[in-house]
Every structure is written in structure tokens, then in C-alpha cells.
């Protein structure tokens, strides 16, 4: 595994009044990955990002960005970070070109029209470079936010709810933009309420709840590890109850006895004494005829809901 580009150790944040927003968070973000941070409202997502980006002071713990401590080497650490907030709040009368160029200057970078042009072209904003922000659509404004964050050539990009409030087609366009950025070597951390966004985009997923990171896992491994599979069997003849012979399989009856539902861990072997083959054989022994069957694997959303319930 590569040397992480962001290292967080024992991070805490307690606000005035005693509210503890972050509780000893330990987290490493790998170079060049897309990391999705999921959590319900109030879980600590925004506070965590704000602390890393230097917008909120931590109460305890250490954070480094590419080896630079965010407190003692603030300028070096912050210069490596681009932050895309949810909303464009000002500069309505500025042009796209000027507002993106100005953002670059804020980080002490010398003017570089070639870089600004590259960013605007990559985000399909070049034809809008002389337009005032107030004349742009919501989707184009969102792209301008990304352009501003990329103006100073950061190696880490934080996207806070990047597709909130945009339609599905634009959301997919934004996903393509993010993928291209990753291909250019930019590490991307996104917070999202759209589970499908994390499922579509992320290499790894972290779940935060009540100020604690409760899980960090590669997406595919997470779905395989915590996902459940469900086998639904439609019966020729409804059952009044599950026969004793089938008790070891933990089956449930549905549709007034016309359907048997078998739920099992996706990591469990599908063979063996409690596997699907054994179940079908036992059904035959019990003289229960199956009319049709289907399988379903739990989605990331199912897993996320279960994790939040467990941590509640």
C-alpha cells in the first residue's frame, strides 16, 4: 500500500458548550483514490473535512497532508488541498475566468493562463469563460466551484455533496469529471447522501456516525463482507408453517405461505449442510415443490442503514 497522502490520528473536536463532534478519529487516505465518506446528518462529516482543510481548529490529535502537519505547516498543507463547497455564495457579477484566476492568486500562485484554460476545458467551461456567474445554470455553477478548487493545482480534492440537487444526467456527467481528475493523479474525498454515488464512484468507503469512524473498507470487500443474499422461493402449494425438517435453514414464510424466503450471509459457503444445494435437496425430501426462485444481494444502502442502526 502506498504512503497515505492524508494521515489522521486521534482527532477530536469539542465545540464550546461541550458538544463533541469528533471522537478520536483515526483515518488514512491513500494517494490517488476516491474515498467516499458516508454518514447521517450531524454525524461529523462536515466537521472532519473542515478540520483537515484548516477551517476549524481541532481540539486534539494530529493531521498531516503529504507529510505536512496542518497546524505547524499550515501553508504547505493547505496549498495541497482543494475544497469544493456545496454552494456558490458570492461573485455573481464576476466572469468564470476572473473568479477562477482569482482563486489561484489566493494561494500565492503566479498567474498561469495555460493552467486555467486546461481546467476550464476539462470541466467543459471554456465556452463560458467570459460569462458572469449569475448567468450560468446550476450545473455550470457547480463546475465553476470545482474549477476554483483546482485553480492552484492541489493534489487532494474535497467534494462536499458534489451532486446535491442536480438531476440524474448531470450527476453522471459530474461522476465522469471526478473520474478524469483521479486519472490525473488527484486524490478525491467526497461526502454524499446519495448511496448510489458512493457505490458507483468510490474505491473505498468510510462510515462516520456520532463523531466516530465506525468502518473503513474497500467498496467491493464491504459489499461482499457485510452484504446479505436472499433466495426467494415461490411454492406450488402454500404452507401453513415451515416444516420441522427445514428448521435449520432459518426460513421465513411470506405471501400467505406461498413464498419461502432464505436469507444468508454472502460470505457463507453456498454449499455444505446449510447451503442452497442442501436446502433444495431438503425441500425435495419434504415433498415441497418450487414453482420459481430468484436471488437478491443487499446493496450498499442496505449495509449503510444496518451500520447506522447498530451504532445508534
TrEMBL record:
Alphabetically ordered keywords of this record: ATP-binding, Nucleotide-binding, Transport
SUPFAM superfamilies: P-loop containing nucleoside triphosphate hydrolases
Entry annotated with the keyword Zinc: no
Gene Ontology terms, MF aspect: ATP binding; ATP hydrolysis activity
Pfam families: ABC_tran (PF00005)
Entry keyword annotation includes Chloroplast: no
CDD domains assigned: ABC_DR_subfamily_A (cd03230)
Superkingdom of origin organism: Bacteria
Domain called ABC transporter: residue spans: 6-235
Name the record gives this protein: ABC-2 type transport system ATP-binding protein
Species in which this protein is naturally found: Vreelandella subglaciescola
Amino acid at each position: 500500500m502506498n504512503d497515505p497522502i492524508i494521515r489522521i490520528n486521534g482527532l477530536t473536536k469539542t465545540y464550546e458548550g461541550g458538544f463533541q463532534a469528533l471522537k478520536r478519529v483515526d483515518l488514512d487516505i491513500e494517494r490517488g483514490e476516491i474515498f467516499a465518506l458516508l454518514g447521517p446528518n450531524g454525524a461529523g462529516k462536515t466537521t472532519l473535512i473542515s478540520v483537515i482543510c484548516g477551517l476549524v481548529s481541532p481540539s486534539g490529535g494530529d493531521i498531516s497532508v503529504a507529510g505536512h502537519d496542518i497546524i505547524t505547516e499550515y501553508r504547505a498543507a493547505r496549498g495541497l488541498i482543494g475544497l469544493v463547497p456545496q454552494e456558490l455564495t458570492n461573485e455573481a457579477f464576476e466572469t468564470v475566468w476572473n473568479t477562477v484566476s482569482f482563486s489561484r492568486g489566493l494561494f500565492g500562485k503566479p498567474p498561469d493562463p495555460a493552467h486555467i484554460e486546461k481546467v476550464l476545458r476539462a470541466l467543459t467551461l471554456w465556452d463560458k469563460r467570459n460569462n458572469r456567474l449569475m448567468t450560468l445554470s446550476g450545473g455550470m455553477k457547480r463546475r465553476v466551484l470545482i474549477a476554483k478548487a483546482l485553480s492552484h493545482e492541489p493534489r487532494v480534492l474535497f467534494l462536499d455533496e458534489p451532486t446535491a440537487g442536480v438531476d440524474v444526467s448531470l450527476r453522471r456527467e459530474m461522476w465522469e469529471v471526478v473520474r478524469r481528475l483521479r486519472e490525473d493523479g488527484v486524490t478525491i474525498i467526497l461526502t454524499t447522501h446519495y448511496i448510489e454515488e458512493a457505490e458507483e464512484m468510490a474505491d473505498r468507503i468510510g462510515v462516520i456516525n456520532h463523531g466516530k469512524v465506525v468502518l473503513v473498507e474497500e467498496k467491493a470487500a464491504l459489499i461482499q463482507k457485510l452484504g446479505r443474499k436472499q433466495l426467494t422461493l415461490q411454492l406450488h402449494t402454500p404452507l401453513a408453517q415451515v416444516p420441522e425438517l427445514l428448521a435449520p435453514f432459518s426460513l421465513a414464510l411470506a405471501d400467505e405461505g406461498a413464498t419461502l424466503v432464505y436469507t444468508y450471509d454472502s460470505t457463507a459457503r453456498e454449499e455444505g449442510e446449510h447451503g442452497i444445494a442442501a436446502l433444495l435437496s431438503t425441500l425435495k425430501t419434504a415433498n415441497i415443490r418450487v414453482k420459481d426462485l430468484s436471488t437478491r444481494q443487499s446493496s450498499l444502502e442496505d449495509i449503510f442503514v444496518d451500520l447506522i442502526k447498530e451504532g445508534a
